[in-house]
Amino acid sequence: MGSIDSTQLGSLDRILKEKVAGKNPQLHNACFAAIGKEGTLYSAAYGSRDLAQTQPNTLDSLFWIGSLTKLHTAVAVMIAVGRGLVTLDQNVREIVPELAELDVIEGFEEDGTPRLRKCTAPISLRQLLTHTSGFCYDMQQEKLQRWAAYVGKKDCGFSGSYSGYLYPLIFEPGEGWAYSPGMDFAGRVIEILTNQDLETFMRNNIWAPLGMNSTTFRPWTRPDLTENLNQVAHRAVDGSLIKGRVPLGYPAIDCLGGVGLYSTPADQIKLLSALLGDRADIISKEGLDEILRPQLANPAHFLEVVCGSKRIWLGQTWPVGAQGDFGLSASINAEAFPGRRAAMSANWSGMAGIHAWLDRTTGLAGLFVTQILPPGDKPTIDLFLELEAATYQTYGPCVEGN
């Protein structure tokens, strides 16, 4: 790698520190790391784990990483596929008992009675991992909320259990795109096939080999971790931060492969580094290629959601009008984002201000971690975008020139 100007190198630190620990901080804490194929290029943590600013935030502080969990689940699934335990396209309704009986919701009668039909189509792991199975998070779908109220269902997507995700499908498998708990049921496939919970499978096959000792679905069993737990903050209407909470609840019940993980930035840096460096001892190149390649026959449904109705949840870091596709857990941009990631890069995000990208073309990955709700918090997004651009300004030419 070529030499890097120290002034440029300092720009990342100045940007992060000013917004988190400056005179007028916009976030109570944040961590950022820029990663190259040879390892971490920059990493820092600023702010405090609590709103009272009494507990310093570090790269070893514990965060709820929300939907960044989905990256772990995709890797776990491809490990299982690589071992011949399952294929991406076989019918997992024959494996997971919870998926045996499913309805598709069509609408409602005038008196409010839901109109349902039985789903007879198969559901594949590929569909679960690409959000094309017909499942949808209930909090993002008014029809599912109406159905739940009608039948008196209390469990929801924030209950911390698989039963909280058992709602009718909103379309036939393969006939649409909706951000969903498909990842959680993909994790359930692994649990059944291996006769162990998802945490055990991930720990043995991903976390332990990478030295990730601070990642878990069950933080309440790890007092060594919870003593460094970050407080979730909520952005009030006036822009101030007030005490919030993890929507999923604490403790959770099941090992939810879509949203359930708690981890440290230091651990997540290790995973991104391994994937950027093609660590074949963790996942085969073919398996990683499969995760990061476009999977959708028709990306229009995905783009309508990510760049339209659910942009605040899913497409906050994409420029308006950007085109792209979806891989196995990751959004994939079709064209380069000016001054930022190259075309065919993958990105993930988590509800409370978690963002990660993986750019194999340039050889750069990045991780941004904070704990701010609600999703789409503008100061959080603005800071992440500024840091990503500064990463490419600092390291891009050097990495490309290897």
From TrEMBL:
Superkingdom of origin: Eukaryota
Lineage of producing organism: Eukaryota, Fungi, Dikarya, Ascomycota, Pezizomycotina
One GO MF term: hydrolase activity
InterPro entries: Beta-lactam-related (IPR001466), Beta-lactam/transpept-like (IPR012338), Diverse_Enzym_Activities (IPR050789)
Species this chain originates from: Echria macrotheca
Pfam family, one: Beta-lactamase
Family the entry assigns: Belongs to the class-A beta-lactamase family.
Beta-lactamase-related domain ranges (all copies): 21-389
Record key words, sorted: Hydrolase
Protein name as annotated: Beta-lactamase family protein
